[in-house]
Specification:
Elements: H1 11-20, H2 32-35, E1 47-49, H3 51-64, H4 67-70, E2 74-76, E3 93-99, E4 104-110, E5 114-120, E6 124-128, E7 131-134, E8 140-143, E9 149-153, E10 159-165, H5 167-172, E11 178-180, H6 194-199, E12 220-221, H7 223-234, E13 245-248, E14 263-269, E15 279-280, E16 284-290, E17 293-297, E18 300-304, E19 309-312, E20 318-322, E21 326-332, H8 334-339, E22 345-346
Antiparallel strand pairs: 1-19, 2-3, 3-10, 4-9, 4-11, 5-8, 5-10, 6-7, 6-9, 8-12, 13-14, 14-21, 15-22, 16-19, 16-21, 17-18, 17-20
Bound molecules: 2,5-dihydroxybenzoic acid.
């Protein structure tokens, strides 16, 4: 038998296979090459969601249901190759969440980890274990698993952010627990911005005992700072052929990714830059915060502008071209794959 082809089926073998099924058995040699593939064969496809189109539908949802009744008023970005599954990649979930002025999405917690990437609006907040963080476009905010969180909007404009969660991964492991707090807001524990002051300034409180460092003690990474970082590094001219200038959001307690199950990055592609083809085993969700360009993912060419969201499946070659200075936010399950010794990349000759 070869890795690629199942052994020939004979009438005797067929009759035998038919007798296995009622006994809840099957013969490995008939499905070896689909169970143990020579390389990743994702059902997920490359796809792009136009922000304007999703936004229109999300605003319609704003008239259909309150954030409170919905618990979370979100339109899920479903990968066309995984229809109906609530998945943007095989392991991850993404959605766009709307909180209207005056609304509260009530406090709850779950074993799924969440990230937020702010698309639109300013002045609304998310609270993690009773500490508010006020959000602006481009801010990256994390909600560690099992942390209480509620969202509120005291501003006078709609607030929309992208949610990324490890829902499919946690459900695959049958490890989902969730509970409501029983009140709209979890009691205020610390002043807004406390986490950033304590842990996000290149300093740590003296005598601080890290304890469980799987999640970053910083849960808000303001765009202003990340964007400035990219701009400062632009001056070095040290462009990576596959990534331009690309930074990952870090857990300052241990240098690891900010969350154990999802890794997030921000990258700058200057006007006219074309990246070399790159592939890796972590299927990745991208959104542009600034600029326009196109990404060729396998055979699919996706034209993107600000706030459009697109996804690249595992192991599909990705090339980005920037028509204007462009900034891409991205997230994937890379931290999980790295921990398990599964993560691979292929930089071609770059
Ligand atoms: O904000 O807690 O998009 O629990 C999906 C599930 C957001 C949230 C989602 C959630 C949340």
């Amino acid at each position: 038998m070869s890795m690629d082809n199942a052994p020939r089926e004979t009438p005797e073998r067929r009759a035998y296979y038919d007798r296995l099924e009622p006994q809840d058995l099957s013969a490995l040699w008939t499905k070896f090459s689909t169970l143990v593939t020579k390389q990743p064969k994702s059902r997920a496809t490359a796809h792009l969601w136009r922000y304007a189109a999703v936004r229109d539908l999300l605003m319609e949802a704003g008239e259909l249901i309150t954030a409170k009744e919905a618990e979370r008023r979100v339109l899920i970005l479903e990968n066309p190759g995984l229809p109906g599954d609530g998945r943007v990649t095989s392991s991850l979930y993404a959605g766009l969440q709307l909180v209207l002025p005056g609304e509260i999405a009530p406090a709850h917690r779950h074993t799924q980890t969440a990230l937020r990437f702010v698309m639109e609006g300013e002045g609304a907040h998310t609270a993690v274990d009773g500490e508010k963080t006020v959000m602006k476009p481009g801010d990256f905010v994390i909600t560690p698993n099992w942390a209480w969180h509620d969202h509120g909007n005291d501003s006078d404009r709609p607030m929309i952010w992208m949610d990324g969660l490890d829902i499919p991964l946690v459900n695959f492991l049958d490890a989902s627990f969730a509970e409501g707090y029983g009140a709209d807001e979890y009691p205020r524990a610390r002043p807004a911005g406390d986490n950033l002051a304590r842990f996000g300034q290149g300093m740590l409180p003296i005598g601080w005992e890290a304890g469980d460092t799987r999640n970053s003690p910083v849960f808000s990474y303001p765009y202003e700072r990340s964007r400035e970082t990219l701009e400062t590094l632009r001056g070095t001219g040290e462009w990576d052929a596959c990534h331009g200038i690309k930074m990952r959001y870090v857990n300052p307690a241990n240098g690891d990714w900010a969350m154990p199950t999802m890794g997030a990055c921000l990258q700058l592609l200057p006007r006219g830059f074309e990246t070399a083809a790159y592939r890796s085993t972590d299927a990745t969700v991208f959104t542009a915060t600034e600029g326009r360009g196109r990404s060729t993912i396998g055979e699919t060419v996706l034209e993107w502008g600000p706030r459009d969201i697109f996804v690249a499946p595992s192991w599909a070659p990705v090339r980005h071209e920037a028509d204007e200075d462009a900034v891409l936010f991205s997230f994937s399950d890379r931290p999980v794959q790295e921990k398990l010794g599964l993560w691979r990349e292929d930089r071609g000759n770059a």
